[in-house]
Structure formats: C-alpha cells, structure tokens
Amino acid sequence: MAQYIEQLPYEIGRPARTWRSRAGVLGAFVAVGLVAYILELTEGMGTTGLRNIGPMGGATWGLYITFVIYFVGTSFAGISVAALVRLFNIKALEPITRTAELLTVVTLMLAAMAIAADLGNPVRGILNLLIYARPQSPFFGTFTLVISGYLFASSVYLYLEMRRDAAICAGTPSKYQKLYRWLAAGYSDTPAERRRHRKAGLWLAVAIAPLLVTAHSTLGFVFGLQVGRPGWHSALQAPAFVILAGVSGVGLLAVMAWLFRNSLHERRLGDDVFGWLRNILGALLLIYLYFWVVDLVTALYQGDRAELTVTRAVLVGPYAWIYWASAACLIIPMLIIIVQKAKRSTAVAPLVVAGAMVQFAAIGKRFLIVVPSQTYGTLLPYGAGSYIPSWSEFAIAVGLIALGALMIGAYARVFPIIPLEDPRGSED
Amino acid sequence: MSTKTLTWLLIVGGFALQAISYFFFGAPIGKPTGVQFSQPRVPFVGAFFILGVGMVFTAALVYEIRGGREDRGD
User: Do A200 and B60 touch (CB under 8 A)?
Assistant: First the structure.
C-alpha cells in the first residue's frame, strides 16, 4: 500500500505571498501577450514585422518560428533526461526527472501556441494541415508529429510517473484530495503495480527515445533539405538541431533545479545532480561548438556567391551583433565548465549562469538560422531585405515564456515537483 | 478482452495505422510528375498518422491502469 504522509510536501496548498506576487507579474506579461495576439487576429499579420521574401524584402518566418524551434528544442532535453534516468538507472538525477518531464510538456504546448501565432488564422491553418498534410513531409513531422504525437507521448510519460505520488498525497486531507485520487486512478503502490509501472516506464522510455530524435532531426530537415535557400541547405542542420536542443534544455534544467533547490530547500537536489548536469552540458557544448566551426568553415571555404552573402551578413553585417553575442553565450559557459572541472569545483552558481547564458545563445542561434537566409539568401536578383520584429511579436514571445513559468509554478503549487522519497527504496 | 491483448492490439494497430497512412494514404512517393504527388490519396491522412502514434502510447496507459485494476481484482 502507498505510504501516506502527514502533511503535503513543498508547501503545497499553503498560502504563499511570494508566489502570488510572482504569479501576478507573470500574469501581467501573459495578458499583454494575449492583447497582442488578439490584435494580430483582428488586424491581420500586418501588425507583425513579417513580410514576403523577395519583392517585399522581408522574412515570412521570424520571431515566432525562432521560438517554436527554441521551445521544441528545450523540450528535447526534458524527456531525454527523464528517459536516460529510466534506461540507465541514473539514481543521482531522479529528483529532477519530474521537472524534466514537466518542462517537456509545457514547452511543447508553448511551441504549439507559437505556431498558432505564426499561422495568423490558426483554425484555417490547423484544419488544412489535417486535411492535406503529407506524412512524408518534414513540415508534417515538425508541426504535427512533434506537437501532437510527441506532446501526447510526453504527457503519458509524465502522468504515469505522477500516479504514485498522487496516491501518497491522496491519503492526506487537503483541498486537492479529490484531484489526487482522480490522478492516482486506483494506484495503491503494491509490488505488482510497481513491477508493472517499472516495465511500462522502461518501454515508454525506449519508445520515446527514437521519437524524440526523429522529431528534432525532422525540425532540422525543414531547413536542411531546402536546396534553394542558401544558409539552410546543410547535412549538419539535423544533428546540430538535436545537439543545440540538448544544450538549451539541459541549461534550463540546471536553472530550474537551482530555483527549486532554493525555494523548496530540498536536500536531494544536491551537488551530484548539478555535477551530472554540468557534465552533460559540457559534453553537448563541445559537440555543438565543433558543429558550428565545421559549418562556418564549409560555408567560407567553398560557399557559392549566395552562401557567402548570407555568411557575410551574419558575420560582419546587420546580424553580426546577434552572432557574436550568441557565440559569447556559448563559449563563456564552455569556459566556465572547463574551469570548474579543472578546479574540481562543485559550486552551483557558475553552472546556473552558464545554463542561463546558453538560453540566449539558443534563441540567438535559432534567429540566425531562420531570418538571414530569407533576407539575404534569395537566389533571384532581389536586393537585401530586412526583418525587425514588431512590439506585438516581442509581447507574444515574452507572454509565452511567462505563461510557461506560470504553468510550471502553478504545477509546483499543486503537485510535488520533486518525486517523493520512497522509504522502501526500489525493492518490490 | 484481457489487458495484455488490448495493449498489444493498440501497439500493433498503432504502428500499422502509421505505416498505412505513410505509404498508402499519403501522397505517392517518388519523382513528382503531376499534382497527385502533392495531394494525399485519403483526406485527413495526417490525423490518421497521429492517431496511430497516439494508439501506441495509449497502450502504456491501458497496460498500467487497466492492468493495475486486474492485479488488484477490481
């Protein structure tokens, strides 16, 4: 039977003034984003900075698609970490598995919303996608398989991992007792149920692993397979998307683990958790920096005229500040991790700084993948274009980030964000 | 129907639906020589494919929740 607890953990259900004020601020950002979105729905895409490529000298994909890739990428690390913990039995990372799974579900929802914002008229877009989509197309893989299939799979994974804690919390009188009972769905933590859960979790992890690699590679193929768009056509796009997804996701996970460690005073979020995250982030950063250099050298060494035009615009042209800022936000975290490893330092603050910095790098790099190839990469004789996101695009992007933080915060106020400790260990 | 049978039905059915949607319901695969290469042969093929993915992962829910009830004798 489930081991019931006397009081719900992590201040769940108890009043928290700091949470309310933080939720209020986040809610204000969400409201501004919503106003901007309503304006876009009623006034049309003219409220954005998006314009046609070529004759109108603009970009049809901009900040929204940048954030779609960023959110989908961030989701990658969440479920990867959770699946790796399950597949390789990495005990040290168990306390952050739920945060990782939740991060995946929330960021995939945000990605779906960012797509809806980019579509302009989401109902028409989604309906046409369902009627006319070709499963063979990378677009289908990205915007349908990732958002619906991957989101569903991740939600199932998160839910099944929540049942045991829901059963434990349901034994404690609280205002959420009915919710916990419903979530537990009869789970009572018997040895047979544990065995069944372990088996289901293992097979889910096995099934999700190829799905997530396929999903993120397909996102890279959307760009990498376009032969007529200089700057996009590259065999490295798919693997680089997967690796940068890991970098941004693991970095964000480190930041979130640090936030929860400080706010919940959870001793299980110790140095070993951050040690693992540091090693994973360091390894992924090294691989990504290698990809970046290889891609750059290839473009500079044997790129054709159009390829060189895009590369010049990125390196020394109007996008140079984003490029070099993104490079700094990848190299400095790498140096931080190298210095920490050399000094055998277990300090968490530098890792959190590195984790936060790579978020800016990930967003910047995605912007550089999406935009310059449209404004500077036309093969037809059009002049250079430009794209500057409008205030409404910024408002919607910031609103989505705030919504994500609000959803994760609200979840942590209702359900244990760190899996409850099992006094019996892992024996049956 | 036992949980084990239902779980396998969902997994096999889900993968089969994905394969059928991809190879037979979607637009023909090959060098495009006409408009038919851009149109799916069956409308809503995307939804069928996603339904297939959903069925495979629903199998985990059935296996764990329905199976758990069977274990408890509910």
Answer: yes
